[in-house]
Amino acid sequence: MTLPAEASDRYLAAFEEVADGKGRPAWLRRLRDEAKERFVATGFPSVKNEDWKYTSVAGIEERRFGLAPPGDGGLSPSDVAGHLPGGAAGNVLVFANGRYRADLSVRRPLPPGVHLGSLSEALSGGGDGLVPYFSRSPANAFTDLNTMLMEDGVFLHVGKEVEVPEPIHLLFLTSGGERPVMAHPRNVIVAGEGSRVTVVERYAGLSDAGCLVNAVTDIAAGRSATVVHYRLQEDGPDAYHIASLRARQGTGSRFAAHSVSLGARLSRSDVHAVLDGEGAECLLNGLYLGNGEQHVDHFTTIDHAKPEGSSREYYRGILNGRSRGVFRGRVVVRKDAQKTDARQSNRNLLLSREAEADSRPQLEIQADDVKCTHGATVGPLDEEKVFYMRSRGIDESSARGLLAYAFAADILRRFDLPDVRRTFEEKLLAWLPGAGGIREFLHEPE
């Protein structure tokens, strides 16, 4: 669908603000121009598009989002501290409305062979090695919009056989202004052969004002590399959050993507992992929480392109109020990807009669020597279990909360970082009804 004239003029004006940034390479302007042409020609996806059948982005098209004005946005170190795990000991890169804030970031020494910095800095030096990541598929209207309007993000390169001992934290904060703001962060993470690195991305809104966060993260894991990626999305209640995570894996590499989504009026997370080397392993592990009128959508693809790959995909959603959860997970096994072992599971827990979940797990198998399974469930709490717990002296609210907590804990237990896992557990406890009773049962202080 062609972009309406008013919206086209608005986004083209924003494009002119960022497209000719000083010191940016010519190849970036060319890719921006190409993305602009595609975006203006096709516009935002509609529910007639099969990939967006259950998610309308009309609210994004109708809002008059603009780039944030220059300045610090009124952020302080306390804003940063409140959005990091208590034990965060590694590097912390902070972005405000999509722009790097060196004054709020924490930089510590890294092993030789590791480059960590803002993407804008890397592009100022030419950044020819970044071209493949800006032209990587799959592309859609939102990744094109990101290419058009991105101002900054993270560039991380880990050299061959280098291990980064501490997690690297990336904090993206969005603050409101006189008009709804939009930010389009772009992150590139490259892990060389035999390297190991853990990255924690966190997105948070500092006000209830409407905003659009449209983030793209590209990850390349070389031969025998290990990349662990965490993502927590807790934008404000009137925010729209669109995220694309694209990973390509080499032979014998290991990639794990853990996510928790609990913020935003509408959120959509696309994950596309290509196992492009023999014996590659991939884990997608996600939890999403919805309340009120929230709409939470996850669209995942795991593409087994080479033999003897292994993938595990576990997503669980807890939905309350009139919220709606959407999960569509595709596992593709190419013709030559023999001896693939793939498992996929999506389970949804409905805490109210008005909550809704749509689940569409898919297997597309072109090889014959494979082990692939998938499954999906949608339903309320088991009333027999609630009755049993009440018969043991637990009040109804706490009983329901404990059962929902146990349902979600199956996802959180796979988080290998204790500080990150505790942070997410606290977020879950604060979100669930009957939190006080749950804490008491778990022997945790209020």
- Rg, please? 22 Å
Low-confidence stretches: none
Helix-and-strand structural type: alpha/beta
Biggest sheet details = 11 strands, mixed
Distance between the termini: 51 Å
> Helicity, in percent?
10-25%
Approximate strand percentage: 35-45%
How many alpha or pi helices?
11
Beta-strand segment tally: 21
The average pLDDT score comes to 92
Q: Outline, from the CA principal axes?
A: globular
Structure description:
- The protein has 446 residues and is of the alpha/beta class.
- The protein has eleven helices and 21 strands.
- The chain has helices spanning 5-18, 26-42, 58-62, 77-81, 119-124, 131-134, 141-149, 383-391, 396-412, 418-431, 435-441, and strands spanning 66-67, 92-96, 99-100, 114-118, 154-158, 168-174, 181-183, 186-191, 196-205, 211-221, 226-234, 239-249, 254-261, 266-275, 281-290, 295-304, 310-319, 324-333, 341-350, 356-365, 371-380.
- The strands form two sheets. Strands 1, 4, 5, 7, 8, 10, 12, 14, 16, 18 and 20 form an eleven-stranded mixed sheet that branches. A ten-stranded mixed sheet has the order 3-2-6-9-11-13-15-17-19-21, with helices on one face.
- Helix 2 (26-42) crosses helix 7 (141-149) and helix 9 (396-412) packs across helix 11 (435-441).
- The protein is globular, with a radius of gyration of 22 Å.
